[in-house]
Amino acid sequence: MTAVEARPTARSTTGRSGHGLTVVAAVVTAATVLFVGITAVRLVQAAPRSGGWHWVLLAVAVLGALAALLLVLPVLSAVRYGRLARAAEAREDPVAVRRDRFRGRNAARLAIGLCVATVIATFFVVFLLANDHAVQSTFFAPDMVARSWWDVTKAFGKNVFIAVVAEVIVLAWGLLVALARLAPGPGGRPIAWLATVYIDAFRAVPAIIVIYLVGFGLPLAGVPVLSSMSPTWAAIFALVLTYGAYVAEVYRAGIESIHPSQMAAARSLGLSYPSTMRFVIVPQAVRRVIPPLLNDFIGLQKDTALVTVIGTVEAFTQAKTYASNFFNLSSVTVVAALFVLITIPQTRFVDGLLAREQRRLQAR
Amino acid sequence: MSPISFLEIEGLRKSYGANEVLRGIDLSVEQHQVVCLIGASGCGKSTLLRCVNALETIDEGQIRLDGDVVSGEGTDVDRLRRDVGIVFQAFNLFPHMRVLDNITLGPRRIHRHSRAAAEAQALELLERVGLAAKAGAYPDQLSGGQQQRVAIVRALAMNPRVLLLDEITSALDPELVAEVLGIVRDLAAEGMTMLLATHEMSFAREVAHTVCFLHEGVILEQGPPERIFGAPTEPRTQAFLHRIVEAGRL
């Protein structure tokens, strides 16, 4: 019997060579670098000849061009792995061939992905530069931003005030409406019906129309107390009406998601329906609805800009004043930036809460 | 039927839509007695228990507790439930409350006991089931057996006159069954009146004064455990017990 030399194989696919992919990556990368370079040159040309802005644009152009050069790295990596794979082929080491080809393909894919993202971002810069950089100066004129940002930011305090007060009231009002909608027994049915009508109506009517009707209608109607509300409080009232309906539905979903066995357990101890709701069902439901509740609150915060229609002086109203006086929208861009600034941390927080909830459920 | 029993169920019928789950149940439980309901899944054991403390409304018949009619329209169910405790198969502890708060909720909100008094009583009961150390834990930090022991304590803290146990070991891992049944055994020895649905035949045989075999919504056969397990007369009882023996559960 002759000993057969054992030789490892990699029968389960050595994988495609990845040469083609590397070539594609190289071509795409070259084109991207070229595109970024041309855009950088145009950026420098478009920049005003003097002032701090000139240096800022110059810096952006140079850094952008340098960053584009980094796109070459994954292509080089793909080429290197291709060479390693060929060397492994020569050694007849199929496992190494497979591994290096895999790494080469992944490097090529990374190169292509980076290029696609870079091209899209560069197109945005090109858009800003369009029509002799008219887009940039309309939306992002530095002098206009400098002139308006402090007034707009001060006025944004009004948006924050409206949002926070409305949210606090909505928190209680929404729960009340949700409990009314779920009111049991013969006495509860008409109340539940009324709550349903309210929820349906205010979820259907656009917030801007509610604000308009409340802000202009109530003073016209001359109702005591309600008519003498300041525009700010009219705005809060209108947003509470609208978002109360949404939040009531969020609460209701939370309450209904508590398993009936919890109700049975509490009632079987002799607790009444209201006590069961108060001590057992609602506390559990509230915990569950915090993420969707915060989502609705983000919507409410954004809708504070709508109160501009009734002349409440908030950030958007202030920005529009600048915009119409100077025929330039950069002050409105400032408002947009402020909303982005306060919303992103909240959305990240909600995402975090939801992810935690998901992990908790999967751990069960 | 003897003159008057502590808990009397007479002609009880209950349907869910077209599905008649209980079809004329007559049953009486004397004070300090343990009555076990056995039978296949879906025979109506759980529904019967839920009817007794009014978690389900009944269609026909009557339930009397200590001579007092406790079924039918207008019954003060909250009042009834103070006397009739129930422990569920899935424990149904309140997950947002610590063990101690789970137990004291009823005494504090219904009996209006002070927090201190309610907690002292709860700790004493927890001590008896060996869980005093877990008073501050949340239910999801406990094993199934520990949760079920807490659930029993929660029911006991209301000082019920009857305790209903609805397959309280069915959701437990086998090695945890004994710790729960041990408590029920102690309660039986202390004279607690209990009506329990169970699949633990040897336990039923050991603690029950009366065993009832339920089949398709009627009590086919009832009697002392020696007779029901030793010499059942009904062929369907015999068949049921035969299946249990074959499954190695008796």
Protein architecture, described:
The complex is a heterodimer of chains A (364) and B (250). With 364 residues, chain A is mainly α. Chain A folds into two domains: 3-139; 142-362, MetI-like fold, CATH 1.10.3720. Chain A has helices at 19-46, 52-69, 72-91, 94-139, 142-181, 185-204, 207-221, 231-257, 260-268, 273-303, 315-326, 330-363. In chain A, helix 5 crosses helix 12 and helix 6 (185-204) packs across helix 8 (231-257). Chain A is flat. Chain A starts with 18 loop residues before the first helix and ends with a helix. Helices cover 38% and strands 24% of the residues of chain B. Chain B has helices at residues 45-52, 77-83, 99-109, 115-128, 144-156, 174-189, 201-207, 225-230, 235-246; strands at 7-16, 19-29, 34-38, 60-65, 68-69, 84-87, 162-166, 193-197, 210-215, 218-223. In chain B, the strands form two sheets. Chain B has a six-stranded mixed sheet with strand order 6-7-8-3-9-10, sandwiched between helices. A four-stranded antiparallel sheet of chain B has the order 2-1-4-5, covered by helices on one side. In chain B, a hairpin with a 2-residue loop joins strand 9 (210-215) and strand 10 (218-223). In chain B, helix 3 (99-109) crosses helix 4 (115-128), helix 3 runs parallel beside helix 5 and helix 5 runs parallel beside helix 6 (174-189). Classes of the chains: A mainly alpha (364), B alpha/beta (250). The interface between A and B is medium-sized, with 17 and 24 residues.
Main β-sheet of chain A: number of strands, strand sense, barrel status?
Answer: none
Structural class of chain A: mainly alpha
Secondary-structure content class of chain B: alpha/beta
Tally the structural domains of chain A. Answer: 2
